[in-house]
Every structure is written in structure tokens, then in C-alpha cells.
Amino acid sequence: MKTLFVSYRVTDLDRSLGFYTALGYAELGRVDVGDAARLVILKFPGEPAASLELVHRPGDGPVDVGSGFDHLAIQVEALATTLETLTEAGLEPEPVQYPGGPHGPKTSWLTDPDGYRIELVEWPSGHPDGITAADFS
What is the pTM of this model? Predict the structure, then answer.
């Protein structure tokens, strides 16, 4: 088994698409699912398949993120360059943090229009993509 994608319900589809395309996602396609509801499937250009689905159900009212979902983590190659690009696109990433100390990953956070938190992660040179068992040994 493997994880296919994460799905977010969004309040304003156009605003959310603007945010996620500024973040670097590209739209793969849309599916109308009835009652004015629509799914929009996104991926990053370097990904082989979809990684994010936006679900717009206007009849359900505004999104309430609540306390059950924490965040989405996205790996970036060069955090400083990414933050500059995002800021130029009108997004507001937070300052760089070093949660693992000076030799650990660099991170920054931003929040989408519905309040979903996104962590941007730049791994140290030589670190494999993602968190592995080696990170706990």
C-alpha cells in the first residue's frame, strides 16, 4: 500500500487554487460531482501523479479546520529561494526555523485561505527524502 494524496475541503475554490498554484502546484483536472460540488486534482511538476485534491462543496458552507488535522509537509530543495518566490507571489511564509538544531532540517510555515497549515522542509545535504527509520536511531 501507499498513500495516494491528501484531500482538503475548501470554502472558495478560486482563492484556494490561486494559493496552491502560487505554491507551485499544477492542476491535473476537475471533476463535477453533483450539487455544484467539484474536485480539483493537483500535483507538483516533479511528481509522477496527483498529491492534492481540493474539494469544493458550496452547499456545506464555510470550512472549519477544527483541531483534528495538524498540517501538510512539503519538501523543497532550497528553502530560501522558495520563500522568496512565495513572497513575490503574495503569500506570507513565516521566518525560517531550525527544529533539529543548526545541522537539522530548515522549515517554514504558511497557512492556506481556509486555515490549513503547511510546513515547508529543506533537508540537510545528504539526508534522504522524507523521514526514515534512520532519523530515530
Answer: 0.92
